[in-house]
Amino acid sequence: IMFPLQKLERYLAPGTDTARFHLFQPGLAALLRAEALFTSGQGHPIDYVSSAVRMDHVPPAALPEVCFIGRSNVGKSSLIRALFSLAPEVEVRVSKTPGHTKKMNFFKVGKYFTLVDMPGYGYRAPQDFVEMVEAYLQERHNLKRTFLLVDGVVGLQKTDHIAVEMLEEFGIPYVMVLTKIDRVSRGLLLRNVLGIQEFVKENTQGCFPQLFLVSSVEFSGVHLLRCFVAHVTGNLPAAEAT
User: Fold this and answer.
1) What are the extents of the domains in the chain?
2) Where would I find the EngB-type G domain in this sequence (predicted)?
3) Contact (Cβ atoms closer than 8 angstroms) between residue 163 and residue 119
4) C-alpha pair distances (Å), 26 with each of 33, 34, 56, 161
């Protein structure tokens, strides 16, 4: 549940380089700190702030920010709802229809950071997707990390490669998150993980070398992802983040 990537490690051939499986391995104190950040309470509200289709409509860039992007139907809204499960009053709409998210949706986590749910690309993407997302990535100076979601069942697709090229061109620091790991066999998941890790090693400069594996259904990897968000937004003591 906590470290699904490391759980896969036991099935690797002896001698396989696993250094990239352990780059972010927080201790209990850091995990608990992150859980507290994602738990709403008196004096620590977690709220939907606003939606925007243009940069002149986005909220002020007052807090550290992270954004989540990915193909339509990759499970982005489901993952964000899982991340906010400790704040049940936060409404994250999840639709069975791919391409449901048409705007940039901003969620404020107390006084600590903002999380942005971006429109999906590919099938049924908004007509102005490129203009909206490129403008956001290039102009949002408080953006600390972009989370690029990849379907763990099918791995990297052509549209994902285009997203990677865009992030690399803009020099945006990002990390890849494999979703839906509960829907894929262990063997296929392992092949996808190793293939994507090799792709990241050979073809990227701005991507964090460790992948994050998540299941929004079983909550595998959700706690670790919360902790990484807390880390990149500067809300974990440095000593707790490794």
Assistant:
1) 21-233
2) 62-235
3) no
4) 11, 10, 38, 30
Q: Kindly tell me the sign of the dihedral angle through the C-alpha atoms of 161, 166, 169, 172.
A: negative
> How distant, in Å, are the alpha carbons of 20, 153, 155 from that of 94?
32, 20, 22
Q: Does domain 21-233 have CATH number 3.40.50.300?
A: yes
Residue with tokens 């090799």: 198
Q: Are 149 and 74 in contact (CB under 8 A)?
A: yes
Q: What are the backbone angles phi and psi of residue 133, rounded to the nearest 5°?
A: -75, -40
Regarding pTM above 0.90, the answer is yes
Among 117, 119, 173, 120, which Cα is nearest to 151's? 120
pLDDT digits (tens, 9 = 90+) for 73-130: 899 989 999 999 999 999 886 555 544 557 899 999 999 999 999 988 876 555 567 7
